[in-house]
Amino acid sequence: MTQEKTQLIRGLNLADTISLVVGTIIGTGIFLKTSVMAQNVGTPGLVLGAWLAAGLLSLAGALTYAELGVLLPRAGGEYVYMRKAYGDAPAFMYGWMRFIVASSGSIASLAVGFAIFFTSLFRINEPWTSRNVNLFGSGLEWQFGWTQVVAVAVILIFTAINCAGVAFGGRVQSVLTLAKVLGISIIVAGVFMFSNGADWQSLGAEFRTPNLTGIQAFGAAMLAALWAYDGWNNMPMAAGEVQNPHRNVPIALIGGMIIILVIYLLTNLAYFHALPIGEIAASNASDPVPTKAVRAFLGPIASNFVSIAIMLSILGALNGSTLTGARVPFAMARDGLFFSKLGALSHGTHVPVPSLIIQGLWAAILAMLGTFDQLTNYVIFASWIFYGMTTAAVFMLRRRMPDAPRPYKTLGYPVMPVIFVLVALWLLINTLQTNPVEAFTGLIVIALGLPLYFYFR
User: Fold this and answer.
1) Which end of the chain is least crowded, N or C, by CB within 10 Å?
2) Could you tell me which residues come within 8 angstroms of residue 445 by beta carbon, excluding any fewer than 6 positions away?
3) Mapping DSSP to helix (H, G, I), strand (E, B) and coil, where does residue 144 land?
4) Cα 239 to Cα 145: distance, rounded to the nearest angstrom
5) Exposed (0-12), middle (13-18) or buried (19+): which is 193, by Cβ within 10 Å?
6) Measured in whole angstroms, how far is the alpha carbon of residue 278 from the centre of its chain?
7) What is the DSSP annotation of 128-141?
8) Which residues, in sequence order, are bridge partners of residue 134?
9) End-to-end Cα spacing for the chain
10) pTM to 2 decimals?
């Protein structure tokens, strides 16, 4: 059987597709980013406002992506939309960014987050060796030990799971999503039932992020929250494997984002109900916010319970990111814009095994090199450049394809897409000011794709 005759199978039903949206989004952010946001803005109200603003912004993007997904229900997601709207060059730059930074960087950061909690739970988190190195433009202490070994192992395991077939990967996603939502529900319900309630006060200067005031601070908090929402755009990458995509893609995108927004707001309300903002700001990965909140009703075993809940949550996001991310280099290769071997499908499982393997190996390298916060900031800035461009594509495709069937059209058009693009532009400018190292590194890595584009052309 030739490569051209081997096609993707539509093996993802509606439940799998919703699980892919919800499960890919809920990862580490809801557990680890609230403390950073508290340091940025200093009050519970502004932290919740940043979560709400980031959620509404992501929902506005999902409303637009849903139209693009039913118009062009092919594997590749944003790459497909950008190629249709802007041509080969911008589409290639997006695909390159997705392959080299966003998908692999997300997988790496999730794996590192999982490894941090896993090694802490089993008390094997002491590094074997450490070195002072300069990575991504900033100095840090590079360490190697069980944390890196576990991170690489979990990447390889979920790469293998997704090589077994999209239907199997979808079922694994459904199970992990159900488990993580159950764990978060227990945390939220327990906190509201058994905690005494904390005062909503402002944060003292000793915990505040220096040199950030007003709108810049709010923008930095939104950037942190957007990591927790990141992944809402992933499901359309696997649209070529979704059953009845004209119906299921918009339902899953919009419904999944509403579910996520409600979960995140309730979870953060629970945090501020249980803890004063000073304790939240002082939290870190070894003693995260949910662990402190859960101690109110679980006592000494709170740490173990929260660690397990976080690890389940991370595994669901990692599985979803692995499944969807590999479809972008696959689609590029099928269009002749990337290495041709990445466009091959397994004859037995009908999934892009070479693309999955290369993605997994590169993610494993990133997991051994980067720290968690570096990887997340690095991914978010690079991704939002193209989120804005993809959302703007809805205007171009309505002009170019006015008679194409659109079973779903963007709610609130044209206001929603315009708001999304403008806020995305503001967010990028703000990030260049507040996180210049990660932002410029992302721009440089994207630019490195230009020689490859001319080579493939």
Assistant:
1) N
2) 97, 100, 101, 382
3) strand
4) 38
5) exposed
6) 28
7) SEEEEEEETTEEEE
8) 139
9) 27
10) 0.81
pLDDT in tens, the chain (457 residues): 344 445 778 878 888 888 888 988 888 788 888 998 998 888 889 999 999 999 998 888 888 888 898 888 887 888 999 999 999 999 999 899 888 888 888 898 889 889 888 988 888 877 787 766 554 445 556 677 888 899 999 999 999 999 988 888 888 888 988 998 998 998 899 888 887 777 777 666 556 666 667 788 888 888 889 878 987 888 777 777 888 888 888 899 889 999 999 999 999 999 999 888 888 888 877 778 888 888 877 777 887 888 888 899 899 889 988 988 888 899 899 989 888 999 898 888 888 999 999 999 999 998 887 665 666 666 677 778 888 899 999 999 999 998 888 888 888 889 989 988 998 888 788 778 877 877 787 788 788 888 989 888 7
- Tell me the CB-side half-sphere exposure of residue 207, using CA atoms within 13 A: 21
Asked whether the bond before 414 is cis by omega within 30 degrees of 0, the reply is yes
Tokens of 440: 């410029």
